[in-house]
């Protein structure tokens, strides 16, 4: 089993464990805020399931129908997770509205809050690990899952503090108010995740730092060429696509130009990891005197 898929399975297992703990906390207390926290974890489990399916599918090799591979499917998983977050937020707001008119103190708050605290600690630990692994593996689905887990940690901490205040102060309207605040926070999280995922589906260019690195490598590794122009980049899951035109002296033999291209490709793949490099070689008459100057 590959590392990304193994990580996705672990994430699903962690999600189910946390859901059981938070479900028990809500069942013991009857707190609307803890219900909101549990519902957020239900979405997380659904998202982890989608991430697992996406990671498995994206690992399939390229075929005749998908010559560029299947990596982009992970963005669909991230879009689905963002949509699920928005659905959960609307359900929490509805529950908070109804609870506002039926205020009641939480039952067994100490035990319920203890269970919720344990679940939050597990989430925090796994979110940190998942984000690091997702970035190392170049998996948008795993990174998206880690972002949502961390937002869950923040809201859970707020809910625990709030329900504790309800218990101590007896101010019952704090419970539905906290649930509503949780919904608003995850709404922002879902909207941000949707924007980032749609950007991947729309073939956004790589980040500015990565683009600067790519330009620098082309400039230093293309010795013997004149310039590189029309540089374009995009990402599809863990794969980075780079293409550009490389201008060489008109009298340069094809074999020599090919050596330059091989040198550039090797440097870019070492820096980017999984990458597909496309270089169109042109004679010096095609120079635009712009783009990347060869050092």
Automatic annotation (TrEMBL):
Transmembrane portions of the chain: 7-28, 34-55, 75-97, 109-129, 149-171, 177-194
An annotated GO BP: intracellular zinc ion homeostasis
All residue ranges annotated as the Cation efflux protein cytoplasmic domain in the record: 209-284
UniProt GO cellular component terms: plasma membrane
Any Pfam family hit: Cation_efflux
Cation efflux protein transmembrane domain residues: 10-202
GO molecular function, a single term: cadmium ion transmembrane transporter activity
Topology of the protein relative to the lipid bilayer: Multi-pass membrane protein
The organism's place on the tree of life at top rank: Bacteria
Keywords, ordered alphabetically: Cell membrane, Membrane, Transmembrane, Transmembrane helix, Transport
Family: Belongs to the cation diffusion facilitator (CDF) transporter (TC 2.A.4) family.
Name this polypeptide is given: Protein p34
UniProt organism field: Muricoccus nepalensis
Lineage per the UniProt record: Bacteria, Pseudomonadati, Pseudomonadota, Alphaproteobacteria, Acetobacterales
């Amino acid at each position: 089993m590959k590392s990304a898929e193994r990580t996705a399975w672990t994430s699903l297992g962690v999600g189910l464990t946390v859901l059981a703990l938070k479900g028990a906390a809500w069942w013991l207390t009857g707190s609307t805020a803890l219900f909101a926290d549990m519902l957020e974890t239900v979405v997380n489990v659904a998202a982890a399931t989608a991430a697992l399916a996406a990671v498995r599918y994206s690992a399939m090799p390229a075929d005749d129908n998908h010559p560029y591979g299947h990596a982009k499917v992970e963005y669909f998983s991230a879009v689905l997770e963002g949509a699920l977050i928005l659905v959960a937020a609307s359900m929490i707001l509805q529950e908070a509205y109804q609870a506002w008119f039926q205020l009641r103190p939480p039952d067994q708050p100490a035990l319920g809050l203890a269970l919720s605290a344990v679940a939050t600690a597990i989430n925090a630990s796994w979110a940190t690990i998942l984000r690091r692994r997702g970035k190392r593996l170049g998996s948008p689905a795993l990174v998206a899952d880690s972002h949502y887990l961390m937002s869950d940690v923040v809201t859970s901490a707020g809910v625990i503090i709030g329900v504790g205040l309800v218990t101590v102060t007896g101010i019952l309207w704090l419970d539905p108010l906290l649930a509503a605040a949780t919904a608003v926070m995850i709404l922002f999280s879902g909207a941000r995740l949707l924007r980032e995922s749609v950007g991947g589906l729309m073939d956004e260019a790589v980040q500015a730092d990565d683009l600067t690195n790519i330009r620098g490598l082309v400039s230093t590794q293309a010795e013997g060429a004149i310039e590189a122009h029309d540089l374009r980049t995009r990402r599809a899951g863990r794969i980075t696509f780079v293409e550009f035109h490389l201008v060489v002296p008109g009298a340069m033999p094809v074999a020599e130009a090919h050596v330059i291209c091989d040198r550039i490709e090797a440097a870019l793949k070492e820096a980017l990891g999984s990458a597909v490099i496309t270089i169109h070689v042109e004679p010096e008459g095609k120079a635009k005197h712009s783009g990347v100057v060869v050092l």
